[in-house]
Structure formats: C-alpha cells, structure tokens
Amino acid sequence: MSSSSGIQIPSRLPLLLTHEGVLLPGSTTRISVDSARNMQLVKSRLLKGTSLKSTIIGVIPNTKDPEHDGEELPSLHRGHYKLLFIGTAGLAVQVVGSNWPKPHYTLLITGLCRFRVSQLLRERPFPVAMVEQLDRLEQYTEGEQLDGELGELSQRFYQAAVQLVGMLDMSVPVVAKLRRLLDSLPRETLPDVLASMIRTSNTEKLQVLDAIDLEERFKKTLPLLTRQIEGLKLLQKTRKLRPDDDKRVLAIRKGGVFPGRQFSLEEDGEDEDGDDMVVLDRKVKEAGMPEPALRVCLKELKRLKKMPQSMPEYALTRNYLELMVELPWSKSTTDCLDIRAARVLLDNDHYALEKLKRRVLEYLAVRQLKSALKGPILCFVGPPGVGKTSVGRSIARTLGREFHRIALGGVCDQSDIRGHRRTYVGSMPGRIINGLKTVGVNNPVFLLDEVDKLGKSLQGDPAAALLEVLDPEQNHSFTDHYLNVTFDLSQVLFIATANTTATIPPALLDRMEVLQVPGYTQEEKVEIAHRHLIPHQLEQHGLTPQQLQIPQDTTQEIISKYTREAGVRSLERKIGAICRAVAVKVAEGHKLSKTESSRVDSDIAAPPEMPIVIDQIALKDILGPQIFEMEVSERLTLPGVAIGLAWTPLGGEIMFVEASRMEGEGQLTLTGQLGDVMKESAHLAITWLRSNAKTYQLTNIAGCADPLEGNDIHLHFPAGAVTKDGPSAGVTIVTCLASLFSGRLVRSDVAMTGEITLRGLVLPVGGIKDKVLAAHRAGLKRIILPKRNEKDLEEIPGHIRAELDFVTAGTLDDVLNAAFDGGFPALSLTHPQITSKL
Ligand code: ADP
C-alpha cells in the first residue's frame, strides 16, 4: 500500500517492546511500562520531548516470554522477522507515573498506522530504528471507494459489522456512536478497528497486525467478526430461556468513546442500568405483594427511573425497592406437624423439662386442630442455660419451619423493632422485617430472646412497639416505619424467653403465657450431660467415645465443684475444656496426664491407651483446683448466722444472713446490696423480736430484757454485689437475730424462706422449686418454708424430696422451733395463739 500521500510518521522511531497485548491502528490502549529499556524511552522521549513528533513511538508486540526478556534485544537478532519487524506507530496521549508497587509508567497510546523496521539504529538505552510506514494515514476525509474483489469483501465486512452493532442495545449512547462511526470511517480502517473491539486473542490480533495487505486483513478479520456474531446470537437465545440473566448479556462498558477506548462486547460483571430497571420492575411484579404495597413499589420505581443515579435519593429508593422485592410477602413453608413425632423429637432433644414439653405439645396440638390459631405467645421464663432457646429451636424443627432468633437484650430504641423512617440517612428496617428477609418465608418461628432486658430511652419504648408485633389482633397489619406499608405477621410463630418476669412491662406480659423453666437438679444435670452435652462436645472437638470417656462420678464432681448454676451452660463449657485438653493429647498421641503416666511408669513405652478416661486426678489436672466449696457448716459456728433461700433471675441461691451487736444507742445498720423491701423485713423482724423478747428470753449484751437497749445491731447480707430484694428473707432475719439475742447456734443444715408479718405470721413466697434445688445443691438437709407453700413441693422431683426434711411453718414460733436444735421454747404459754386469716 502506498504511503506517499496523507500524513507521514517520522522515519526514525524509538521502539517500545511490550508484552501487553497488541496495539492495532485506530484503537487506544493502556500499556504499563516497567522494564529499564522502556522506562528510559518514556523518560527521555515522552517526558522530555516537546514537539508532537516526539510523542510518536513505535510499539512492537514482544512475543518473548517476559521472564527471560533481558537487556538485550535478542529476538531482533535471532530474527522473528515477521513478527518483530512490524509494529504500530502510536501517539502517546497520556503518561502517568507511579511508585507503587514498583516504579512504573502507564501510557495511554492511540495506534496510528503500521510500520516496518528497515534498520535498527541503536539498541541502548532504548532501541531506535529507521521505519517504513505501511498504512496510509489520512486526515478524516471521505474514504475513496474500494472496488473489485476488495470492494466486495469490504462491503461484506461492513455488513457484518452493522449486523453486530445491530445486535447491541441501541439505547446505550456508546453503541449508537459506534453505529454512526461505521458509516463515517474509511472502509479500510474497519478491520483494525473492529478487531481491537471484539473478543480476540493476542495471537489473532498479531495475525491482523501482520496482514499488511488490505485484502488479507479483511479475510483474516471477517471470520473473527462472524464468530462474535454467532456468540452473541447464542447468548441472546439463552437469555430468552433464562430471563433473569438479561442484565448480564450485552453489557458494554459505559462511557467509552470511540476510538479512544476499547470496547468489550462480551458479557462482563457490570450492570447496565436500563436493563436493571427492567429486572427490578419484573421482580416487583413477581414478589406477590398485596395491592397497597405493590402500588407503593410501582410508584417508587417510576420515580427511580426518572432520577439521575448521582442523586443520593437514588440509592435510598433503590435499597428500599430491593428490600421490598426480597420480603417473603407470599412465600411460606408448609407445616408438617405430627404430634407423635413432635413428642419424640422434643424428648430426644431435651431431657427433663416435663412440664414445659407438655405445654408445648398442647400448644402444637391445638395449632394442628385449628391452624389459624390466634393463640397465646409462649414465654419461657427461667435462669440462663436451662434450654429455653434450644426448646424454641426444637419447636421450629418439629413444625418444619424456619427459625430466627432476635436478641432483644439491651435494645432501647423502638426503631430497633419498628425501623427508621426513610427520611433519615442510614435508615433501615427493624429487626422483625430484617428477620423475615433473612429467613425468606412469612411463617418462621421467631424467638424473641431476653424480653426482660428491653431498655427504655428517649428514642421511645421498644416494649410498646413489641406490643403491636405480639398482639394477634393487630399484627396482621404491622407497619414498619421503613417499609411504610403493612406486613402481615399473623403467620409468624413468636416465642419469647426471659430470665424473670419482674422486669417485663406488664402490658407485654399480659400478651404472653408464662411458662416457668426452673433450674435442674444435680441428677438431671448428670443425665443431660451424658445424653446431650458430652456427645455434642465430643462431636464439636472431633473426638469419639472411643477416645474420651467421662464417667458419671466425674460429671458429678464437675457439677458440684466447678459449677454453681441453675442451668447447664458452664457445665457444657467445662466439658468443652476437657475435650480440648484431650484433643491435644490425642493429636500428640500421648497419655492423658503426667499423673496417669506416673501411675503406670513401669511401661512408659506403652502405646497411648484409648479411651482416655477422665478421673478425679485428670479432672484436677485439666480444670485446676476446685472452684466452689461446701462452706455451709463452717460458717454456722457462731450465734447470729442463719441461711436463707433467695430467688434470683439466675436461679435459686442460698444466702447467709449475719448479725452482730455492740454497745451503742439502739441503732440498726444494714449492709449488703439490699432493696427497700428487704430493709422493711429487717425492721419488722427487730420489732417482732423486741415485742416477744420476754417470751423467748432474748436479751441485750448485758442481759437486759430489751435486746436493743444500749446496743447497736448490724445486719449483713454477704455474697456478691447482686442486689437482693423481696420479702422472702423475713424468717431468716428473725432466726438470725433470735440466735444473736439468745446466744444459741442455728442448726447448720437448715435453710429457710418466708415472708413475715408484724404479728408473727409466715406468708407464702415464690420460686420454691429453685430455692429447694439450691439448698439441695448446697448439701443442706432441712428446709423451713411457709405452710401455704406446701403445694409447691409437688413440683420437686421425688428423690430430692426424699433426701430433704421439709418443715412447713405457719408462724414464726414454728420457724424458730425448727431452726434450733432442741427447739426454741417460748416461756409464757399464755401467749395468745395466732391463726392466720390471710
Ligand atoms: P437458655 O436459652 O435457657 O439460656 P440454651 O437454650 O442456650 O439456654 O441452652 C444452653 C445449652 O444447654 C444448649 O446447648 C442446650 O442444648 C443445653 N441444654 C439445656 N437444657 C437441656 C436439656 N434439658 N436437655 C438437653 N440439652 C439441654
């Protein structure tokens, strides 16, 4: 081809050898430059040069493996003539330097025309050569018509190119521009331009570059073009089959300016905006929303389409719509409820908890009979670690429903439940709606964990928001502030858990049916450990029963010496600790402990014995010295100490009450974290004792009949910083003071609970089962409780009842008689007999 007419490139060109693809005339590409040779070229030619000429360089594709590309230009000498001698003269449009991760330049180069190296002038510091221009480079004029065979070929090529562009989405500006360019560009430039746009390998591009002859070039490029067209057709066919994938097809990098940028007609990850809207639109229609929600969505969608993407509101609206389409408006799972199977499943998952399991089964049975049950919300109340959450999970499993736990502890903002209005920056839906989005169905089991720990703040009362959620009469039209349309929650099965009912707001409590889950007895814990916790922990640590065995005795030791809790959570942790220790040994292939090996030191070389059995010594090795001791009897060696039973949200506890007296003016000092009710009980106790001092021969230090005369009394409730309150310590305070004033010791194996009145009656109290279990844990033998609590004893397992001696007391007289060895006789038998009328 003649190069005599049109624009001439300089005849001396510096050469840039690049591994990065092939620059074809008419396309623009970025080339990263980091080899010493090329860096030199950039520095001394492109950065120093001032004329337009100096920005023209020869770009030669380097087919050599970059690893072995040294300082030399060996390939030039060894002569891959065909490849190396032909290159593209390019105009460096932009040079960007950077130091990271190593010094390099990035060049933006537009290809002008082919050239052939006619003579290499020098090689260092960068090659410079005499070149011969191969393509005609013209100012944009009407390209002259090609004729003959070439004309026909170029016409076919042009038509194929038009067909290809026609398959793209014309509404994208860059495609429209490309279409216009096809007509205005001279035909002979089309092969180069299209070859650099469509999907071609470097080798194919090299072949195009090598095709100096125009006819050959057309012939080389046409099949590539046809291939791309076929590929697109195939893609469009699959698109019809899979409508969801619309947006991925025909994605074109946005904003490309021809020929200043390369196109890629293949699909790539970037979403095309217009397509996205179509998808969103369809999703909205397919989401199965009720009419009002659909109307809101369509309105928002309409607004979104008109909004420029740069507007902050665009993202907001889009997020909103995406949430709306994801919500399970009409998606639900089918309940598969078989009461017999449910019973087996609950029994398999949980040992003990009979009462709770019975009630749960009743509840499920009623649901089976009447599916649209607007039944009560179950609320499991009990100490931590007694399996409340885990029963909730089992219920979901028996019903075949999704399970989602919403932790409410510490939530003090009502928008946590109900969401923020969309006008706020960063607004989002509340936890209920979020939970529904997570589970993806509209009838999951939601476990509202720790409803007793809801807080209150200036941001409103979350408990009040929960009222609406939990009320079966209202929750079919629950409105989240973020959604601003109603969502039907009536299919959701709510279960709540709490440690105590005391801090649950009354209105909320009223909506729920409270099921008490008391703590476990020692024996129950041993069973739970062996049936559930140990197998579970073994599995978690990748151990088998053939490797680790924990005998029952050891479990009992763990329970009594290393844990003190109503539930089984720290027991589970301790078992986990044992498993970890054994896992190390198993992995090492050693014996369990030094102590063990010393016992069998006669055969030190013996292989590790499996299973490793955890005995007392091993237990001490792993868990350290015992944490809790039975200190009860030691503390009761002085007058003025008595043991009470307290109920806390963490289960029952034994509580020591200590009293001492000294000379003073009849002051009463109370210490220990006490609530008001407890202080009142202390005053009541003192008053009753003073008024009955004569009867029981109670005296002050000096032996005077008024115990307070010239004496100060100090009452202390040790153990912990936990605030103790409630009326049930009354009898204990009386007993403790009676011991102090009489100088007699309270029996060391007796614990008591009960509220007192000024007249000396003992009133019933709550939490009997937990309290009795705590006393039993502590190894006490006799328990004094109010007469009217006798019925509560039925809840206590038979074997524990058998081990304890229960004394029911109607009056304080009964209490004192039972608390002291040999009774606590009253002197005057004329003391009027009091009978409870309460
Ligand atoms: P809570 O919710 O009452 O604080 P969890 O349900 O989290 O307690 O229970 C703590 C752990 O104790 C769980 O691993 C659970 O499986 C186990 N667990 C508690 N009670 C039982 C039981 N009766 N039978 C079997 N495992 C139990």
TrEMBL record:
Job of this protein: ATP-dependent serine protease that mediates the selective degradation of misfolded and unassembled polypeptides in the peroxisomal matrix. Necessary for type 2 peroxisome targeting signal (PTS2)-containing protein processing and facilitates peroxisome matrix protein import.
Compartment annotation: Peroxisome matrix
InterPro entries reported in the protein's UniProt record: AAA+_ATPase, ATPase_AAA_core, Lon_bac/euk-typ, Lon_lid, Lon_proteolytic, Lon_Prtase, Lon_prtase_N, Lon_prtase_N_sf
GO biological process: protein import into peroxisome matrix; protein processing; protein quality control for misfolded or incompletely synthesized proteins
Active site positions: 728, 771
Keyword ATP-binding: yes
Domain Lon N-terminal intervals: 13-229
Keyword Protease listed: yes
Matches recorded under SUPFAM superfamilies: P-loop containing nucleoside triphosphate hydrolases, PUA domain-like, Ribosomal protein S5 domain 2-like
Molecular function (Gene Ontology), one example: ATP binding
Domain Lon proteolytic: from-to ranges: 636-822
Alphabetized UniProt keyword annotations: ATP-binding, Hydrolase, Nucleotide-binding, Peroxisome, Protease, Serine protease
EC main group: hydrolase
Protein's recorded name: Lon protease homolog 2, peroxisomal
Gene field: lonp2
